[in-house]
Each structure stands twice: as structure tokens, then as C-alpha cells.
Amino acid sequence: MEYETPLFFHVMEYADRADRDVIDMVSGNPDWEPPEALRDGLREYADLEPDRFEYPPSDGLRELREEIAARRGVDAEQVIVTNGTGEANYLAMARALERGRGDEIILTDPVYPYYPGKTTMLGGTQRFVETDEDGQLDPAVVREAASEETGAIVVNTPNNPTGAVYPEETMEALVDVAEANDAILVSDEVYDHFDLSGTFSSALRYESDHCIVTNGFSKSMASTGLRVGYAVFPEHLIENARSRHMLVNVATTRPGQYAALRSLRETNPAYHEANRELLRDRIAAFTDALDAAGAEYTTPEGSFYVMARFEGFDGSLENVERLIDEAGVAGMPGEAFGDSRGDWFRFALVTPQVTEAASRLAAFFE
Ligand SMILES: Cc1ncc(COP(=O)(O)O)c(C=O)c1O
Description:
The chain has 12 helices and 13 strands. The strands form 3 sheets. The chain has a 7-stranded mixed sheet, sandwiched between helices. The chain has 2 domains: 124 residues, Aspartate Aminotransferase, domain 1 (Alpha-Beta Complex), CATH 3.90.1150; 231 residues, Type I PLP-dependent aspartate aminotransferase-like (Major domain) (Aspartate Aminotransferase, domain 2, 3-Layer(aba) Sandwich). The radius of gyration is 20 Å and the shape is globular. The protein is α/β, with parallel strands linked by helices. The protein starts with 7 loop residues before the first helix and ends with a helix. The protein is 40% helix and 15% strand. It binds pyridoxal-5'-phosphate. Pyridoxal-5'-phosphate binds next to helix 4.
């Protein structure tokens, strides 16, 4: 069996090798500062006693699990600290399939490409439901697709790549569909601090025993290299997930967890507000310049991606490579996110050069 390897690293490497200066808008790697407390935590760690370099508890540092639990309104016994949200999603999807109540995983189109990759890797079957043009998911469409074959429904809000933020009614209905079909709703909320609309609603509020929520600090602490995330399980599902995490990873980085804990405790809301403000400015600058280029585009309600479409130039990998070589702008092909956005490109607003990038695109398409 071949796994579907997401294209992100391939495109990043292609852009790195290019023979010219390229503005990197490929991946969701924030270019802004991590919280000062995160840097302090890492610096401090280097001088701690040797026992702090020993294995941490497999499911995470107790204090970090308690801090996460208090913030999310759950019990610390429900939390596993993972190697990023990526592992949290893997544990959640694996746990859902292990129940043996259906091997189909309902995914959205467009989709964050790691979900279909993981589905196949775990022996599950992919079933896609389309979102609307704005990236919103109609729960009635999910209800229609769900059946006794459904093991899980995997959603992401705020969404990568569409920028949609699902309102409370959507989340409530999705929990209901999962419960009605004895399936698990996996809600990936890694962009929760990047809700620009004020409408974000966590699946945790429904306290459902059919729901697993995943999250991490890669985006909220601008530190994709830290590799600390977590999953919140209903208590009846957590035991096997703990064992899987232990068997695959032994444990998660101890210095990283320590620094994340310090950052959670000491970083005030102004840090997150400033990052949202920065993004709002970048979205406005990038989309204004795309207007000037005559492109069609999405204006995200959350996360940090803009999708754009240029007439007569489809969102293929080949065209992404042309934009890198000929325009000096690197984005992701829309076709990497599913069939529905094959005409589009996704640009991550993780560079101060967003206006320059859009001008380069305008010049290329002139
Ligand atoms: C929707 C989504 N989930 C998970 C991840 C991976 O997050 P982490 O770095 O915490 O593993 C990303 C990263 O881009 C993402 O966009």
C-alpha cells in the first residue's frame, strides 16, 4: 500500500532550490515572534538538574496537562500531550477506527491533506463531503453522508485552507450527527487563537462522549518546530490512545512541554491579539493587491490562508512551480486540498512581503 504523502515539503524544497529570490507562502509556519516566556522557558531549561533530562511521563507533564485541562474546562485525565496537533489527529483517528463501528472517515473537500493521508495509513476509507464556496460545512450534507459505516467525521475550525470558522449551530449539529451514527467527531482546533470573526465554537462545549478535540502550540505560540500539541478524549476512549502514544513515541519532548507550560502561564491575551491584528493587516494588504491583479480570492474569517484563482491558470503543482520560477512567489496548489479547489492556489500569510508577493503575481498575469 502506498501512503499519500502531503506535498508541503516537496513544494518548500522546490522553492528553496529555485534560482532566484522567492517569497515563501507555502506552509503554515508563522514568521512572527514566539512569546517571550517560551524563549525564557527554553533558556532556563538548559541549566536545570540532570533529572529534568530524563523521560517525562508518557502522557505529558502533569502540570501541563492540568493547565490545558483548566483552560479547556475538562479533566486532566482526558488530556494526552502529543508531538504536535499532527500526532493528536493521528491518535484521534486511530482511536475512532479501533472501535470497529465503521471504517469510513468523513472528510471535507477542500481538506487539510494530512487527514486523507492518515485515513489511508490507518486502513480507513475516505469519504468526502463538499463545503460551500465560503468553506462552510452544511451539517445536513454530513448527515446525509453518515451511516453505520462511519467511524469518524474529521473537521477543522478555523479552517485550513478555506479560512472558514464554523458557527455554533454547525458544531452542535456535527456532534449530533456523530452521536446519532455512533461515530466520533474529531475537531482539530489548532487555529483557535486565529479566529478573526469572533464566531469560533469549540466542540468541547457539548461535553460529548463521541467527540475528540485536538490542538497544539505550533500556531498559537508561533513555534511549529517545538512539536507540542494535545488531544482531549472522552474518558472511555483514552486508555488505548495513551498506549498507542507510548508505543509509537515513548513520550513527547520534555523541554518543549516545559517551555509551552511557562508560556501558557505567562503570556497574556495581548500577544494573541497583536498576532490577529498583524494578520488582519496582511489579509487586507494581500487581497487589495490581488484585486488590482484581477484575481478572485477568499477573505478568511480565521486561520492564516488566502485562496486565490487566476483565470486560465489552474491550481496544479506544475503551475505552482511556474509561479516559483517565473513570478518568485511560492504557494500551494489547490489540487492538493481536494477536487473542489483544483482551480485555486493557497497562500499562507506568513511573510511581511504580502504586498510585494501580490504585485509579483499581478506582473506575472498582466
Ligand atoms: C489543520 C491543521 N492541523 C494540524 C496541523 C499540524 O499542527 P502541528 O504543527 O501542531 O502538528 C496543521 C499545520 O499546518 C494544520 O493546518
